[in-house]
Amino acid sequence: MKTYSSALPNAGIxxxxxxxxxxxxxxxEQLRGAMLSGRLAPGTRLPSTxxxxxxxxxxxxxxxxxxxxxxxxxxxEGRVGDGTYVxxxxxxxxxxxxxxDRPRGRPGEGAPxxxxxxxxxxxxxxxxxxxxxxxxxxxSTPALDVFPYQLWSxxxxxxxxxxxxxxxxxxxxxxxxxxxxxxxxxxxxxxGVRCHSDxxxxxxxxxxxxxxxxxxxxxxxxPAWIEDPGFLGARAALxxxxxxxxxxxVDCEGMDVDAGIEQCHHARFAYVTPSHQYPLGPTLSLRRRxxxxxxxxxxxxxxxEDDYDSEYRYTGKPLPSLQGMDTDERVIYIGTxxxxxxxxxxxxxxVSPPGLYPALVAARSLGGHATAPLDHAALADFISSxxxxxxxxxxxxxxxxxxxxxxxxxxxxLKGLLDVEPGEAxxxxxxxxxxxxxxxxxxxxxxxxxxxxxxxxxxxxxxPQRGALRxxxxxxxxxxxxxxxxxxxxxxxxxxxxxxxxxxxxxxPSD
Length: 511
Description:
The chain has helices at 23-37, 49-56, 60-72, 115-122, 149-163, 177-190, 206-217, 232-240, 257-263, 286-299, 357-366, 373-384, 387-413, 439-448, 478-493; strands spanning 2-4, 13-15, 45-46, 76-79, 83-86, 200-203, 223-228, 244-251, 254-255, 269-272, 302-306, 331-336, 348-351, 419-420, 428-432, 454-455, 468-472. It is an alpha+beta fold.
């Protein structure tokens, strides 16, 4: 082991021949460390390579290699005829802010968000945290335990083997054409939607579709009808676009169109879930469908039809879409595969009227071209080969049985605590609490017992007259549903929630 300290007394160079690390690498690291720590100040003149090699007792090439590396990285600078110096600005200084120069205020004070940024930060898409493994009764959870994983794997492998190179390009900004063609065929046959591949824009799920449409159609202050109670994601998308929300009440016939006209006849936009109202579940009646279309034709308003889970109807055939009844091209139709297949697939779609299509494609392109082309190609094959239709038929049978299991469990375990109503469609049921019981506090009590439910009040802009809990059932086997019902009953029998005056503020504040 040799020590060098005479020519650079502040550097503390110590080279260990037995360490296994090359001597030039040791010298580089120790000189660099001395510069970064300030022991070798900027502008310090270093000994010549010959002199340093002699002092350290090493070959001159050892010093030359270390100096060359430090020079290449900007730590050293040579001056012709005058030697080698520590650089005036050590490179690592560029990556560190001097503590003395840091602002003393709160984080973000120096660069406040825009008005739209503040709305985005405050927006709520879901009343619950949907990370981690789902527990009864988390909603919007498909039956992942019976998804055809092996078939999906084969489709992915075959598609990659046959056309992997084609899928590596940016592709069409509207999305993978074979998938758009497959979706158009499916929607025309199953939902009565009038469309073709060049009226469809693929998105990364329904929330992405909502955000794109709101961004393209709405200016700050534009009035927009929204169902009350209604989907929080739609509320967030419209609010962050600057819309003025007009809460329209919902009853057993769906959105009350007359009430919407009375509140704001000149609204520019209406968001509606006509096939299965979210979250209460009624279907928009024919009378109100016609009234909504007539209102849009008279005023030039746009209607956004969110057909989020209409595939799952357990009595009779699936109802035709509102878009299929529209003769004036005022309805924009959106759907998603996240609920009918699996959430991580992140594939949704917009069926656009012709006049809006170029703007929506441009908005899609501006936000990045369609993603996951391999998944899109496999999904196109899944639909075109008939697997999707078979999967839906199988899921309807399974989900109908699971709904019966939840109803039986509720009748046995929750009688007198929660009135759970059967549903003709969808992936969740509503359970109504006794009068004057707080659904927000009930949901918190349920969480403490290992059960995930969402309160009706979370979806309301105006306080509901009666509290209720939303119960998802599709993602859980009968045994899990019964255990969940027992846990929920234990929570509701306890003292975890209180009686409240429903005329007071909604415990989940609106936007």
